[in-house]
Write a structure and sequence with these properties.
The protein has one helix and four strands. With about 60 residues, the protein is of the alpha+beta class. The strands form two sheets. The chain has a two-stranded antiparallel sheet with strand order 1-2. A two-stranded antiparallel sheet has the order 3-4.
Length: about 60
């Protein structure tokens, strides 16, 4: 198996590793029922709807 001829610098290693964190940030999307921000593939915390039907009971205190 081949071995590296020279050591990679800390800057080069950091540049390579920096790309991993960018992709893991969840982006909020608009809820089709109420229009508020929600995460994909999850019920809306404001109205309690998911895929066109109510799946959570949301109290008036929270909303």
């Amino acid at each position: 198996m081949a071995n590296p001829k020279r050591k990679h610098s800390k800057a080069r290693t950091g540049k390579r590793r920096s790309e991993y964190k960018v992709k893991n940030v969840p982006t909020p999307h608009e809820c089709p029922n109420c229009g508020n921000a929600k995460l994909m593939h999850r019920a809306c915390p404001t109205c309690g709807h998911y895929r066109g039907r109510a799946v959570l009971e949301v109290s008036e205190d929270y909303a």
